[in-house]
Amino acid sequence: AAVMKRQLCTHLVVAAWVTGFTLSSYHLVLLSKLTFCGPNKVHHFFCDNSPLFKLFSSDASLLWKVDSIFISFAVLGSLCLVLVSYMCIFHCILHMPAASGRKKAFAACSSHLINLAIVYGSCIVLYAQSSKDVSLETNTTVALLNTVLY
């Protein structure tokens, strides 16, 4: 309560919503200008970027570039923030005087780190590469593992 005031919390929530809505809107505007041809079935569990890009008949290079920038900003930016915060946490844990306290702190952090590895690992495999370079089978398998494990 001393650090997270109600006004700061409200500002952070509004910023997250506005950023997400703005990025999604820009993506949808670019997507709506493309034409599709051939089959209209997406071979995936959900309508993801890679299988959707396989259905375009028009040039989607601008959308690919914009997606790469947005994904790099969102995924890698948040990953950097999480890693910096964990480095601070580990620094504090290593400077604890009691070994039993360090053991409890590392045990509490381990499950969260496993979840982070699953989520960020699958996001990087699915989205940080160009959709042209990822096969639909790999994309489907990683998405399935992410859904089942997380």
TrEMBL record:
Pfam family, one: 7tm_4
PROSITE patterns: G_PROTEIN_RECEP_F1_2
InterPro entries: GPCR_Rhodpsn_7TM, Olfact_rcpt, Olfact_rcpt_6C-like
Membrane topology of the entry: Multi-pass membrane protein
Superkingdom field: Eukaryota
KW Cell membrane (keyword) present: yes
Keyword Transmembrane on entry: yes
Stretches assigned to the G-protein coupled receptors family 1 profile domain: 1-150
Gene3D superfamilies in alphabetical order: Rhodopsin 7-helix transmembrane proteins (1.20.1070.10)
GO CC, any one term: plasma membrane
Segments crossing the lipid bilayer: 12-31, 69-93, 105-128
MF terms in GO: G protein-coupled receptor activity; olfactory receptor activity
PANTHER family: OLFACTORY RECEPTOR, OLFACTORY RECEPTOR 6C76
Record protein name field: Olfactory receptor
Organism: Struthio camelus
Gene (name only): OR
